[in-house]
Amino acid sequence: MDMDIPLPEELELLEANSHYYDEPCLDPSSPDPYSSSAARSPDSPPSASPEINGQKRPRHSVDSESPSDENKRAKIIDVDENAGIQVDDDDYEEDWLRYSPPPQDSNTTVAGVQEEIYLSRYASAIDGDFLPVTAPSSGDRVYARVCRVECELRTKKLDVIGQSNDLISEPFDVLLQRIEQQAFNKALQASSEHQSDVIVSETPIVHEQLWVEKYAPNSFTELLSDEHTNREVLLWLKQWDSCVFGSEIRSTSDEVLSSLRRHTSAQYHKYTDSSFSSKSRGRKWSSGSYRNSNNLDHGNTKGIQDPWSKKSRLTGPPEHKILLLCGSPGLGKTTLAHVAAKHCGYRVVEINASDDRSSSTIEAKILDVVQMNSVMADSRPKCLVIDEIDGALGDGKGAVDVLLKMVSAEKKPDTGKENIAREEKSRRSKKGHKNASLSRPVICICNDLYAPALRPLRQVAKVHIFVQPTVSRVVSRLKYICNKEGMKTSSIALTTLAEYTDCDIRSCLNTLQFLNKKKEALNVMEISSQVVGRKDISRSAFDIWKEIFQKRKVKQEKKSYINCGSSSGEFDFLHSLITNCGDYDIILDGIHENFLQLRYHDPVMQKTVKCLNYLGVSDLMHQYIMRTQQMPLLVYQPSLAISLHRLLAQVQKPNIEWPKSYQRYRTISMEKMDILRAWHQKIAPHISRHLSTELFVEDLISPLLHILSPTTLRPVALHLLSEKEKNDLAQLVNVMVSYSITYKSIKSDPLPSNLRNELALVVSVLSFHPPINDFIHFKDHRSDHHVLSLAMKQVLLHEVEKQKILQLNTGRSENITDEPKKEEQTLVHKEATTADSAKITVKGEGSGRESIENTMNIPSTKHGNPSTSINSSSWVSNRCTIANAKAKTSGNSRKPSGGFNFFDRFRKTSSKNSQDADTTIQKEAPLERDLRPLLFKFNEGFTNAIKRPARMREFFQ
Amino acid sequence: MLWVDKYRPKTLDQVMVHQEIAQNLKKLVTEQDCPHLLFYGPSGAGKKTLIMALLRQIFGTSAEKVKVENRNWKVDAGSRTIDLELTTLSSNNHVELTPSDAGFQDRYVVQEIIKEMAKNRPIDTKGKKGYKVLVLNEVDKLSREAQHSLRRTMEKYSASCRLILCCNSSSKVTEAIRSRCLNIRINAPSEEETVKVLEFIGKKENLQLPPGFAARIAEKSNRNLRRAILSFETCRVQQYPFENNQAIPPMDWEEYISEIATDIMKEQSPKRLFQVRGKVYELLINCIPPEIVLKRLLHELLKKLDAELKHEVCHWAAYYEHRMHLGQKAIFHIEAFVAKFMSIYKGFLIATFG
Question: Are B141 and B202 within one domain?
Fold first, then answer.
């Protein structure tokens, strides 16, 4: 009988942690006898109840005794079962599928005190109290209801003991041993009889099997992980029942869900009335009003949970369609997912990192799992477990994306739909729709919840963070396994091991197996020196900084078994910590950022100097390594951090901040550098070539700001200025233009600034366009720069714009040749006179130019300066004629620049032709005029208060 | 435009400050041949001005007609092609660029541009001046690789291409390059020279200069002619006619550093050091080069220091500046210097006053 085998294990476990007691007791019991008894149950109740009532109460009136009593009773039940009736497994299943809920009347019996067990595959089938029972080997879950028939069957035996004496005749230990012995014999028999599906019986045969696999929990109750988490996961899975099993089988009732809820919350709050809590054992059995109180309790929780459960009922699948389990490795996440899914009747389909995780393949796979039912033998619905979802970033993202798509597709349809509709919908979508929805539970497992790939998933999924199981639980399990394997260990050693591995049961087991193979006993003192796998724990930078800044508290217990001196131990610890993190740059930055805030004793700053020297060395080293690419040298970085730790470590808790200021400095200075570069390029080359961008800040900006905002300038209309002031203004505008500085209204200003419109009311802030005044803004520094009034700025802006257009028209020639205008004009004049021979009258040309310059809207035809980069067609043609005429002088001063050459040649011929055709100035001039484009400037957002019609010719005057 | 630009000498004859050098250069050029040149000296001494004047002397006014170009180069470097973009100023006869803007890929720029110039060598009617001039700015910031690659190309293409290198410190230019060039050191102008220039400008601008005023500006300007002229113009803008005791507006960042120095002198503690760090960051954020911050800080501290400490402090400043150049995070080293100074100074205070 395979069912019995786990019994001894369970007992062991039971010993170790007594609070876990209930389940082990009931758990191994094969459901068969119960089922039969349950089937019989409706017949007998009324007759039996009073009698039992009478019998039981006195027995349990002695509270102190009851636990053992109860324990014993359970054992007896077990023993009884072993001998008991057995129904074929398949039969049993069928039975329960067909089973209908018991009539309500069983509930009506006042004698609710009796605990009778009453089984159902589905909790909904039971009303009233029940205990979930899982068969460890098959993972079948049944719900046992307390009912009286069983009691009737058993009472006799119980009574014998219960009534004969308050104490048991034999000592408890003896009883236990006997039971164990019995069970063991049974187990041996059973294993010899059917070897096929017994797990333990494999032990002698397959010796190579890893302990981790061998002793992996098979049932929900065996799970080592945190009870609360387990239940939450189970609850979540249960919420799928109505959706997944909906049409075929009765879904899990609200009641069950709520009671599951209740348990979890009870567990969470250490709720004493919980039937799973060990402390309340006695009360549960003894108090006559148990049923009442339970009812009350039930009612309460129901009242609270009602809206919730109703909702969940209606919507079918739970709110969060994806469950995300996270926690450090070895805590049993994968195991939990598998066990829980199996427990709830799903077939687990696992996708892990070793599978192909590209988006397309995974989509097909998920669709396959989530929407189809296999027609093969195993027709259980599937539950998808995506393991290590955070692992591969590139590919893992594919999985996340597909899941998100499915979840979002789900959200679109109305939430109030019935299961059937949903089912249909999904079926439809299977056929045609691309938008697939999730209709099966999906459990994702990750180590790092905050992996960037998981960011979107975190929002839609129900997240459970695994906490470490308590050391005692791990140890008891280890002990049990050691016993099983016949390995001699002490619980102290096991505790140490568990602590050492941070309760990573996997690594514990591997270590133990390894030692067992070597025929060595686990030595307490040698754990650190023994070849015990130490995990690579990569901790966050914050933890590392904390370790560096904070002296470790003198941990007595740690010191006791870390033999070596504390300093070297500390060194090793820190070294491995920092090495595992790997990002030395950020660690040292963090130290630099934070160490001055520490309160270390340093009268003459020598420590600080030392620290900064170390940091400097680390910087030099980093730079050297990066330059020469000698990565092996990086190993010396951690030791620097450790020496800093020696200098700085304090007992009190440091206040650590993430190092931001260096990054801030980098980004801002880059931005400013870009501004400067852009500015530098805008400035005409004859000025900018003399300056480098660094020099701007160093030499130029401060005086320039002074020069640009003179205190003497009066904000009055231009015509009111004196001659001298006008000169000053002209000079100022000249400077601004040559350094390509303008004023610009700041964008945050709601009203667009207006330059010609002198509306004083318009609150606009004009600031320098390359924001050069930013460069002298230092924190806590007041500069005495004069700031011009807004009106003045507007005047300046206007003037600058005007000047710019002027310059554009007259060409940049003045700037380039760096000659005063007068000089140039004469030069032009001279050239023009020589060009006289070339059929163009100087006078007309000169006057034309002057008038043009006055109107400033038309590009001038100054052709004395071939280097101007502006070439309207007329200008080119003109220049070319001259060039043509004066071929001899073009050698040095007027050689057209390289880039122009080709087109110049081309144009030359054409213009020559045209000029051959009509050589008179009278014809040339109007042609020229026609060709001149009219320049105008449009200010966006500009509204002129007064509009008046203007004729084109007014512009030309 | 500013006076700095307005009164910049255009020809070698107009040069006021380094007249001797200018005449030598003129002679050099008029003898029809010109070696590679390396101009070095502090900023604001007139290197660039001299170079421009020299170019004008060689090529005439056409050298002044420059256009700005954003050039792209595609360089085949073995397996991959490197895309480079750089702004150049070029006239018919010369190209001017700052190769260090290309960062660590400056090597390719240097090689490419010289090859390119050698390829289309200008052919003059007279067959003379058949070379182009390449002006490279900030050679001291070139990477070592670029400098190495430069020296061979310098020789190979010397027939068609002359180099004029310009940098602040010749010590950062490799020996090999220095020996291939005619090194010309441009001193910072002495205060008398600065005064002369200022008075010249004053005369041109028709300004009344009170006696000693120009000297004050010259003194303040730290022998930097550009700065002198700029602050002269600033004074002019702020107040004219000049008064003899008129305040000469200081550079903002220099003021800020002197504030820092005062802070350091007031208190020496890690807490204060933390505040100083914040302020140094402020300076660095505003693109003040860290070397200059350190130098200026030392300058300000020395002003307030006892004579017997000066030597030691200078030593440590040099020490940390060296480390700063080797390293990457300037803030670490500046801060280390400040800490060292605090430590020395505090020790000194305790020793003196008990």
Answer: no
Domain assignment of residue B201, given as a range: 191-238
> B23 and B151 share a domain?
yes
Residue A666 in contact with partner chain B when CB distance is under 8 A: no
Compute the Cα dihedral for B15, B16, B18, B21 and give only its sign: positive
pLDDT digits (tens, 9 = 90+) for A40-94: 444 444 444 444 444 444 444 444 444 444 444 444 444 444 444 444 444 444 4
Chain A residues lying within 8 Å of B96, measured CB to CB: 689
Is the CB of residue B332 less than 8 Å from the CB of residue A596?
A: no
Same-domain status, B136 and B21: yes
For residue B329, give the CATH number of its domain.
1.20.272.10
Q: Do residue B123 and residue B17 come from a single domain?
A: yes
Residues 50-79 on B with a CB inside 8 Å of A are 52, 60-62, 64-68
- Do B176 and B29 sit in the same domain of this protein? yes
Asked whether B135 and B161 are in contact (CB, 8 A), the reply is no
Cα–Cα distance, A512 to B66 (Å, whole number)? 81
Q: From A730, which residue of chain B is nearest by alpha-carbon distance?
A: B1
Cα nearest neighbour of B89 on chain A = A685
Which residue in A has a C-alpha nearest to residue B3's C-alpha? A735
**For residues A552 and A520, is the Cβ–Cβ distance under 8 A?**
no
Q: What is the distance between the terminal CA atoms of chain B, rounded to a whole angstrom?
A: 58
**Among A37, A34, A11, A39, which residue's Cα sits nearest to residue A24?**
A11
CB contact under 8 A, B230 and A699: yes
- Number of structural domains (chain B) is 3
Under an 8 A CB cutoff, do A706 and B237 touch?
A: yes
- Strand-pairing partners, residue A768, are A743
What is chain A's length?
957
- Per-block mean pLDDT, blocks of 10 residues, chain B (354 long): 84 87 88 84 88 87 81 76 81 83 79 76 58 85 85 80 87 88 90 90 87 86 87 84 81 88 90 90 88 92 90 94 90 92 92 84
Q: How far apart are CA A727 and CA A735, in angstroms?
A: 12
Rounded Cα–Cα distance for residues A609 and B339 (Å): 5
Give B 256-275 residues with CB within 8 A of chain A. 256, 259, 268-271, 273-274
Answer yes or no: are the C-beta atoms of A673 and A610 closer than 8 Å. Answer: no
* Residue A682 CB burial class (10 angstroms; 0-12, 13-18, ≥19): middle
Q: Which residues pair with A445 in a beta bridge?
A: A325
d(CA A355, CA A337): 18
Contact between A343 and A141 under an 8 Å Cβ cutoff? The reply is yes
Copy the structure tokens of residue A697.
């800040």
Look at residue B217 and tell me if it is in a domain: yes
Look at the block and give the residue holding tokens 């993972």. Answer: A139
Tell whether B215 and B171 lie within a shared domain: no
Query: What CATH number does the domain located at A223-465 have?
Result: 3.40.50.300
Nearest CA in chain A to B241: A712
Please check whether residues B157 and B213 belong to one and the same domain: no
Is the CB of A702 less than 8 angstroms away from the CB of B340? Answer: no
Token pair, residue A141, equals: 């879950």
Amino acid at B74: K
Q: Measure in Å the smallest separation between the Cα of B200 and chain A Cα atoms.
A: 18
This complex has an ipTM of 0.88
Distance of alpha carbon B51 from alpha carbon B166, whole angstroms: 9
My answer on whether B175 and B211 are in the same domain is no
CATH topology of domain A541-659: Zinc Finger, Delta Prime; domain 3 (1.20.272)
In whole angstroms, what is the distance from residue A727 CA to residue A788 CA?
A: 18
pLDDT the model gives residue A47: 42
* B24 belongs to a structural domain: yes
Measured between beta carbons, the chain B residues lying within 8 angstroms of A700 are 226, 230
